[in-house]
């Protein structure tokens, strides 16, 4: 292999880095920005849709009308990866473990050749897929819980590198004034947390808390968002919750989080979503307390958040009502959340860990 002064690394994602954001694209983009001494090759959307792409590295065009990682985009990524994996020093894959991953993992030598591979696992859709998979190379989990799960599935020496949050872009903000707003942000997924957030909000309302609930919903490919949004409104009406707004995809998430008092994020299952959801990091960095479901992946947040049993709307609602009624506790959690973001999810720590892993594999 020809050595270069600056290592060349292929960022292998299921879609373009300048397309619609997913956990794999977000993580790959953060790695690209965090390691300026690396020459990256990455997938870019064609035709160009006007969004500013990363300015570093070499873009490889893939046909994508909407920037979403559909099956054709994933096929293009695999085929392009098979070509460019032979032209770089290292391959860094950002792939969740879904239904197609076991086959890809067994065909890894065909697609990725003999280059060293880093595989960052954003999430696992179903643990049964792990039993049929093999590691692509050095494996990186986002949480200690996922690392234990991967090790038990014979993925070997699994490293833990939590995702990063840009602390300058997400500064600590004072508590919003005025009528409280409670936020849920997520997808229209089965047991994904939106219904639990509505039921929990209704529980808190019956307990005497007064607030407005805003649900910022993103749709999956093939979903009819209008019908799904209406179903959430009808559910809220059936519970007697009077002040609910259901929005679609929000462009300015920073402004929405700034206006929120509390984040309620209570999925019963993550279903392949990132172990450390970006919305939680953004909220904690901004000084917005969070009520989360008590999933193993969320244990890494420690005492910086409140947790309730997964799917338990009654307990989640009680936590929400208590938090809205306790200004001092709100302040304590806001400060803990920001401190956690700085200590464990800052960009310097993220960059140092990936830089060290790259050096180890390229040695």
What would you say this structure looks like, in words?
The chain has 363 residues and is α/β, with parallel strands linked by helices. The protein has two domains: 8-164 and 346-362, Glycogen Phosphorylase B (Rossmann fold), CATH 3.40.50.2000; 181-344, Rossmann fold (3-Layer(aba) Sandwich), CATH 3.40.50.2000. 38% of the residues lie in helices and 18% in strands. The strands form two sheets. Strands 3-2-1-4-5-6-7 form a seven-stranded parallel β-sheet, sandwiched between helices. The protein has a six-stranded parallel β-sheet with strand order 10-9-8-11-12-13, with helices on both faces. α1 links the parallel β1 (8-12) and β2 (39-46). α10 (278-285) packs across α12 (327-344). The longest helix is centred in the last third of the chain and has 18 residues, at 327-344. The radius of gyration is 21 Å and the shape is globular. The mean pLDDT is 93.
């Amino acid at each position: 292999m020809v050595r270069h002064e600056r290592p060349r690394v292929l960022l292998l994602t299921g879609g373009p880095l300048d397309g619609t954001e997913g956990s794999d694209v977000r993580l790959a983009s953060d790695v690209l920005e965090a390691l300026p001494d690396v020459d990256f090759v990455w997938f870019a959307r064609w035709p160009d849709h006007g969004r500013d792409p990363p300015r570093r590295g070499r873009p490889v065009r893939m046909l994508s009308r909407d920037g979403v990682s559909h099956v054709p985009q994933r096929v293009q990524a695999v085929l392009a990866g098979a070509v460019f994996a032979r032209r770089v020093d290292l391959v860094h894959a950002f792939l969740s473990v879904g239904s197609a991953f076991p086959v890809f993992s067994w065909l890894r030598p065909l697609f990725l050749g003999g280059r060293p591979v880093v595989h960052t696992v954003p999430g696992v859709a179903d643990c049964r897929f792990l039993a049929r998979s093999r590691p692509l190379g050095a494996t990186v989990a986002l949480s200690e819980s996922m690392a234990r799960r991967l090790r038990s599935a014979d993925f070997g020496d699994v490293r833990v590198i939590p995702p990063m949050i840009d602390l300058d872009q997400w500064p600590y903000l004072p508590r919003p004034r005025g009528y409280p707003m409670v936020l849920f942000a997520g997808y229209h997924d089965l047991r994904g947390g939106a219904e639990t957030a509505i039921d929990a909000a209704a529980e808190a309302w019956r307990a005497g808390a007064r607030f407005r609930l805003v649900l910022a919903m993103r749709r999956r490919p093939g979903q009819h968002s209008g019908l799904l949004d209406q179903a959430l409104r009808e559910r809220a009406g059936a519970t007697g919750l009077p002040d609910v707004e259901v929005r679609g995809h929000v462009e300015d998430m920073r402004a929405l989080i700034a206006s929120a008092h509390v984040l309620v994020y209570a999925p019963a299952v993550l279903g392949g979503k990132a172990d450390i959801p970006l919305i939680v990091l953004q909220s904690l960095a901004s000084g917005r307390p969070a009520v989360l479901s008590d999933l193993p992946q969320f244990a890494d947040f420690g005492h910086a958040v409140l947790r309730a049993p997964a799917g338990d709307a009654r307990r989640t609602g009680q936590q929400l009502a208590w938090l809205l009624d306790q200004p001092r506790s709100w302040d304590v959690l806001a400060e803990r959340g920001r401190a956690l973001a700085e200590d464990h999810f800052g960009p310097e720590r993220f960059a140092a860990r990936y830089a060290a892993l790259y050096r180890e594999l390229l040695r």
